[in-house]
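# nightly structure sweep
# worker-07 picked up a monomer target from the shared queue
# config: single-sequence mode, recycle default, output format = structure tokens
# input follows
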Amino acid sequence: MKTIELLLTESVDNLGIVGDVVRVRPGYARNFLLPRSLATTPTEGNIRRLQEKRKIVEEQMRLKRIELEQMLEKIANFEITLERAANEQGILFGGVSQHDIANALRSAGFAIDDRTVRIGEQIKRLDSYEIPIQLAGDLRTQIKLWVVSDKPAGEQGQADADVEVEGELVEEDEQDQK
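# output follows
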């Protein structure tokens, strides 16, 4: 496999930070990194020129790491409840996506991206779920998600039946139906 060596002039997700010398495929370099000025040739002068910028980026990364560790402590074992419309069997008419969960966490005061919520596919049933949250490569935890019906408890199972105050089912007489 043919690769080329480049010096990163900006941090690139899943590749490296400013000042890293990386090996990439020629197409990736030609079509993405070089046209966007994210990389250059790794000469001694270029490496020296980027040392100061690299120190600034490393300090920013260190501060961001501290912030993420503090958020991890707060979010660990956090519980959220989402109300959704569902049928009598508990199957949702829509679904709960990672975006919905991330929005609920943001409204609870956590500054997270949608991609930190790792559910794989949409949730389609009323139930409780353990939702993996990955803030960084090694900063992982779980939250508890309760997906509940948007109908009050009395309406949920007996939607078409008449219920007395005591909770007994009222059966209609055959004569009443004629």
